[in-house]
Amino acid sequence: MTSDTPLWIYDTTLRDGSQREGLSLSLEDKLRIARQLDRLGVPFIEGGWPGANPKDVQFFWQLQEEPLTQAELVAFCSTRRPGMAATDDPMLQPILAAGTRWVTIFGKSWDLHVTEGLKTTLDENLAMIQDTIQYLRANGRRVIYDAEHWFDGYKQNPAYALETLRVAIAAGAEWLVFCDTNGGTLPHEIAQIVQEVIQVFDSSAEVEADGRRQTADGESAEKVEKAQLSTPQFPLLTPHSPRFGIHTHNDSDTAVANALAAVMQGVRMVQGTINGYGERCGNANLCSLIPNLQAKLGFSCIAADQLEQLTETSRFVSEVVNLAPDDHAPFVGLSAFAHKGGIHVSAVERNPLTYEHIRPEQIGNRRRIVISDQAGLSNILAKARSFGIELNKQDPTCREILQRLKALESEGYQFEAAEASFELLMREALGQRQNAFEVKGFQVHYSLLSETDRDRATSLATVKLAVDGKDILEAAEGNGPVSALDAALRKALISFYPEIGTFYLTDYKVRILDGTAGTSAKTRVLIESSNGHQRWTTVGVSGNILEASYLAVVEGLEYGLLLQTQAKAALAASATAK
Amino acid sequence: MTSDTPLWIYDTTLRDGSQREGLSLSLEDKLRIARQLDRLGVPFIEGGWPGANPKDVQFFWQLQEEPLTQAELVAFCSTRRPGMAATDDPMLQPILAAGTRWVTIFGKSWDLHVTEGLKTTLDENLAMIQDTIQYLRANGRRVIYDAEHWFDGYKQNPAYALETLRVAIAAGAEWLVFCDTNGGTLPHEIAQIVQEVIQVFDSSAEVEADGRRQTADGESAEKVEKAQLSTPQFPLLTPHSPRFGIHTHNDSDTAVANALAAVMQGVRMVQGTINGYGERCGNANLCSLIPNLQAKLGFSCIAADQLEQLTETSRFVSEVVNLAPDDHAPFVGLSAFAHKGGIHVSAVERNPLTYEHIRPEQIGNRRRIVISDQAGLSNILAKARSFGIELNKQDPTCREILQRLKALESEGYQFEAAEASFELLMREALGQRQNAFEVKGFQVHYSLLSETDRDRATSLATVKLAVDGKDILEAAEGNGPVSALDAALRKALISFYPEIGTFYLTDYKVRILDGTAGTSAKTRVLIESSNGHQRWTTVGVSGNILEASYLAVVEGLEYGLLLQTQAKAALAASATAK
């Protein structure tokens, strides 16, 4: 295959992805994700099932007002109900009202699901597929047909399963998508079944090459096609040359490999979700599939500069759906190119090829040298270098930092995600830590005086600080104890360091370190702060959640001040140079 | 293949798994995990690299004192250093001192790593492989040879890569393991390369079938073998019939599929880790591989009753390493057999085959009906049934519960992991909630008066309760505000409900719901409680972490009392029946 072979990515984060347990999307969330996917260059975005809930109806309306720039928005729906005409099924009206050019219809391939699930006959299921697709085609829609439970159905009753596809093609579906709905199929079975099926349709396509099928109301399929908008990147397909797609789930931990196996057999559409979100164990992860297909197998999915947005897209979506990103996710995870063993670190710095399967920059990720209790001196040196601190391996400070690091880690500290705290620790060992202020003590008070009067509950924090030998006592209220504490500290410091007015807390994470000792266990708090254009993370550990929070908040303020000092120094240096 | 074809599972959680960023294991952790793996029936357990750190040395000593019951413990080490005899390399002494029957030696297959990484010659690398294996064989050890960077090496320089394996076989290695160290290889490449390599050795094995190779010091390989213990489940292999293994990483999101692809080509050892822990994106996940190999492909890996311990093992290991379990993990995740769509739920209750790729009980997992904002009435009914509450679909209470549920979820509540809170909500709607006590208010005070006197910091909680119309005021101290609050509540209630003395908090999880608004965002707290033989989880949501904790703690106590009441009622009923 050449590097130009096109492969269509079909994103279903907004529909199948939202089936993930613990994930729920507001209308605004859905719109933000759709626009990000559009920027990423995904050609098909399945937006939802209009009519299933008011949110999905509104979503499609909003995108009629302000359409996406590149992607085709797709509405999703099942075949019509048994025993009624498609025109009479009220379910299909919101699909047309959604105003998309493309509609994905899912239907049953597995005889058991027809008789047990739908409680209808095998013939009626075929009629449902046919009528629904013909109805949509007659109304100017282009149709993708999702063959639900394809692999299980084909294994049980291949003749019937194939018949459902034949009906879908004859009715005018342009893409036929093999769905491994239960996620139980393994890659070698996917490869074998897809190969067999594509062979069946390749030969039947020849037989029908001159045929012209009719739509439900007698119009020729060709006429219907001309009636609709055709975009240059999606030339219309003739009804007798269907293309195939694949839709996999991760129940066997092989969703990505299953999709790849189908592509190797000639499938040209891959359905999946950002971060692999989806019901049960998730859908095939597009953040893994896109780089595998494009950077490794040479297919053309999205532009090279769009591929560089993949990591950002993954993190953006996890932010919007409010799920912690998987740091260990292939390609886009924070740890995907992290090196911690001492040997690895020196080797990877000499020649990245030796320990990296792909250039992280290609997908917008980056290499990281990790600080951990397995850290050797070479890691400490590499890390210091990344902070702009030149250390010498012979310098006893190096060994001191390593020992301090190990001592803190045994207390429960982890610096892997708290690089700002690690830099402060390093500067302290080197005698380079600024002591912008000293905290002498603090108190936090929370009072809920009546269960019926929760809105009047208050959190109050009092802090005692010293700056330049001068004591300051300040108090502030907040929505919670930590924001009260942060407010009191900033109130006390702002007259000395006005830049503190630009700092704010952007994230707050709490981890209980000993899961078996309940709330008296150690608590690790990570706090992310920002000054509007930089972000940094600090860590605090204590048996008490308030003290752990206090430690992280204080270091967060200190590190922000350090960044300001560095910025000023850099500015002064450049002014002098002029 | 028959259902009796044996396949050897090789666990490296304790060595390669511990390379995962954020994971560190104490000696006690390692011992607990090793014993659990032994119970699971994994035949090979790689314990670590004795000599790399004092912990690993001690680990092997401890297991010499109290050996595992079934599994072979394996020590891991690299080939000797360049330019010295194996007998002179101090690195190999702790390996012998570890006292295992089996040793895994890893060596370089990729010429680039020899010249760039080791900075030695290609010939010296071959000598290093040979000497190290011969030395261990001469000292009575059986050897597994891990061919590091096998696939990348073979692609670059197949002749040299094959030569490293020939040397390892001739020196007496019984297993040769193809390692995809960088994790960049895709399943079809794995299949092709493994097939080619096995063919090379199948034909060369015939040529050498009568040959007898010598160990370094002239002893026959056969004599060396007789000198060691042979266990019935691991018959000794002759040196000229090597067996092959596979070791994959998940950087391309295909680690499990890669291992399966190698097995389909004749490999009979699979290396991986529990929960897929490992450096960067992790190793091949044994919790997915074992059920795929055994329940789907018919290999014999572990006994059927051991397979039923797989889910428990996965969760045990995540507890010990103190990482939140992945709820969406294939096979063993909490959501792996969770059903939330209304259609799915009714269908799966009629015929599990329609929506489940494997029986969850087979791997010790279970089906779950999920409560969520997509919940329909049929989910509510199924859930109620699981709590022993019979609801009627026509009952308006059903719709009331659904509405209350949606309202709470829009406030940030989630009941998916807090079934106790959901049951209380349901009982409240049905008028079946016991009001064992009423909280009238509480205060929490934390004071750290001097930075140098942290040990004297105190958390104090005061609560005001009403039980049977009687007001109670109590105060208690704790390590943190939540434990102080819990202590005060229990102190206030224990004279009314003595069983509260057996309750304790077992886990405490905090999630900030809006990651962009810092500490003033909403906080969701999950609290797990226990009475010694049952566990339950409750949830609280508030803008204030203390209030959210308070809500969850109070419901935790209330639910514990409900369980006691139910247990007493059941006991009384059975007494009456007698």
TrEMBL record, chains A, B:
Q: Which CDD domains match?
A: DRE_TIM_LeuA3
Keywords assigned by UniProt, alphabetized: Acyltransferase, Amino-acid biosynthesis, Branched-chain amino acid biosynthesis, Isoleucine biosynthesis, Transferase
Task: Give the matching InterPro entries.
Answer: 2-isopropylmalate_synth_dimer, AIPM/Hcit_synth_CS, Aldolase_TIM, Citramal_synthase, LeuA/HCS_post-cat, LeuA_allosteric_dom_sf, PYR_CT
Catalytic reaction list: pyruvate + acetyl-CoA + H2O = (3R)-citramalate + CoA + H(+)
Question: Which parts of the sequence belong to the Pyruvate carboxyltransferase domain?
Answer: 7-308
Q: Which SUPFAM superfamilies match?
A: 2-isopropylmalate synthase LeuA, allosteric (dimerisation) domain, Aldolase
* Pathways per UniProt: Amino-acid biosynthesis; L-isoleucine biosynthesis; 2-oxobutanoate from pyruvate: step 1/3
Q: What is the enzyme's class at the highest EC level?
A: transferase
Q: Which PROSITE patterns match?
A: AIPM_HOMOCIT_SYNTH_1, PYR_CT
Cite the GO molecular-function annotations of the record.
(R)-citramalate synthase activity
Q: What is its EC number?
A: 2.3.3.21
Please give the family membership noted in the entry. Answer: Belongs to the alpha-IPM synthase/homocitrate synthase family.
**Name of the molecule in the record:** Citramalate synthase
- The gene that this protein is the product of is cimA
